[in-house]
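Aim 2 progress update. The chain analyzed this quarter is reproduced below.
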Amino acid sequence: MRRRDFLKSGALLGTVGSVIAPRLRADVPDHLWEGYDFGRPTVTNRLDQGPFGVSQDDGWYTIFITHASREHIRNFGTGLVGYTWEENGPALRVQCGVETLEQSVEKMAALPFVDVLYIRCDWRDIHTGPGKLELSPVWEATFDAAKRHNLGVSFRIQLSSPNIEPQKLSLPDFLHGKVPIVNIGHKSKEHRTSYDFYEPRYDSPEFQKAFADLNELLAARFEGHPQLEYMDLMMYGFWGEGHTNDLPNPFPDYLTAEKTFVQMTELQMETWKTTPLAVNTEPDISAVGNQQIRDIAVRAGCWLRSDSLIMDEPVQIEELSNRPPWIATVLEDGANRHHVLPGFADEEKACLAKLPESKLAFVGHDSEQQPAGDYPQQIGGPIALPYRESAGYHALDIGSNYFGLWTEADNIRRYYEKYPDSLRAMEQRMGYRVRPSLIWQRKRYDTMELILAIVNDGVAGVPGVLGIYAETLDGIKVGGNLDAGQPYAGRLREASILLPRGLDGQQIVLRAELLVKGVRRPIRWACHEKTNADGSLTLRLKKASDADWKKGV
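Predicted C-alpha cells:
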C-alpha cells in the first residue's frame, strides 16, 4: 500500500469507521493458544511426506545418517541478538566517552556467538519532515558491521518512550502543533515520577499521514534488504510495546483506539511485503486492541515478540509457547541488561555516575547480587543461577528463536566466559536446527528415490516453509517443500524426492532452503558430519547393480 493510497482510503478520526468494519472486544475472546486455529499457510510444490510403506519399492537401503551438531550454526530465523542502540541509547561506554560508537558496534558484531544486530530508536531520531528520512550514525555503523561479519539486522521505531520525557516526546518535532497531545498523568506504580507523561492522539489525521510517510520512507530504504532479518511492529505506547503501563491511554473510547491500531497494523503488513514483522504479546492493559491486533498479525504470518521473560504474565508464556509452529519468537529480558559481574560493579557505577538521572530511571535491575530472602525482588523464590543464565535457559523453555543480549559487548564476553553454560545451551538448542537424520535410497518407478528423515534438534519449529533439494554435480536440481513449520521442535518429518534416471552411483548435493514471506534463503544443516562451505551435504548414491539391496527382510 503506497502512502497516497492509504490516505485516499481514509485518514483517521472522522473517517476511520468507514474504512474498517466495526470490531468489538468480544470478536477475539480470551482463548488458549494451544490447539487454537489460526489458519495454516498454503504450501506449493509440496513433497510427498508419507507414509512410505514396504510394498512401494523394489529395494531399499540406508545410505547416510547424521548426528546433531554441538556447534554454533548461523541461519536466518534464529540466533542471539546484540543491541547497537536501545531505548536508553548506545552502550554505556559510548555514553561515558570511553569508546566511540563505531568501536562499540564493531565489538558487538565481532562476538562469535552474535547472529543479529538490533537498533531500537525513537521516531524523532530518523524522521525530520515530510519525505525526509535522516538516519542517525548508528544505522550506517550497524549495517556496515553486519555486512563485514555476515550478520542480520533488525530494528524497532518507537512511537513513544517514557525514557526521554518530560524533555522530549518520541513524536518528531515537525508534528508538534499539528497532532493533539494528551496528558495521561503520573500516578503510576511502575514509574514513580513527579512529572506527567504525554501521549499523542494516534488517531489524528496528521499523525496517520506522517506514520504512512515514515513506513514508505523506511520501506524504500530497507524492504527487501538482504541483511534485514525482521522489524518490530510499531505499536501503541511506551517503547512501542502496546501499553502505557498503569496509566490511561489518550483515546476518547476503546473502539477508536482499536480501529486506529488495527489500521496501523494493516498498513505495516501491506508496506513490508517480504520483511517479517514481530508483534508484541503485551496483554491489552491499556485497552488499545492488542488482542485483535495479535490475531490479525499471527494469521498473516507475523512473528511474536516479548520484551520481558521471567517477569511475564502467565498468559504471555502460554501464547509464546503454544504459537503456531511456523511462527518465530523474539525474546529479551531487561534485568541485569548490562551483564554486570560483581567484580566490575565499581566500573559500572563510575560510568553511570557520569550520566544524568533521566538516563538512569529506566535501566532497571542491573546487578548479580544475590538477595538474602526467599523471595527476591526479581524472581519468586531463591535464585539458583545468575540472572542472565536463568533468563537464557527460560528462553529455551518457551521455544524461543531469538534472545536479546543488549548493548555491552565487553561485559557480555566476560559474563559468558564466567558463566558459559546457558550460552552453550542456547547455541546448541535455540530456534530450529534441522538435519537429515536418516537417508534411505529406494528403487522405485524405474529410477531412484530418496526418503529423508529430517529432524529438528532445536526448541522451535521451522519459522516458515523448509525446502529440500537434491542437486547433481552438473546442476540438475529436484525437490520441494515440507508443510509449514515442519519439522516441529524435537520432532522428525519424512519426505520423498524422486531422482532423475541414470544417477545411481553418482554424487549428489543435499540442500535446504527457508521460505519466509516469498523470500528463499539458504539454510545450513545442523549436523556433526562435515558439510560443504555453504552448509549443504554431499553424499554418494548406491548403485542399482549392488547385491545387498534390502527387500522382504
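The longest helix spans residues 205-222. The two ends are 61 Å apart (CA to CA). These observations will guide the mutagenesis experiments scheduled for the next reporting period.
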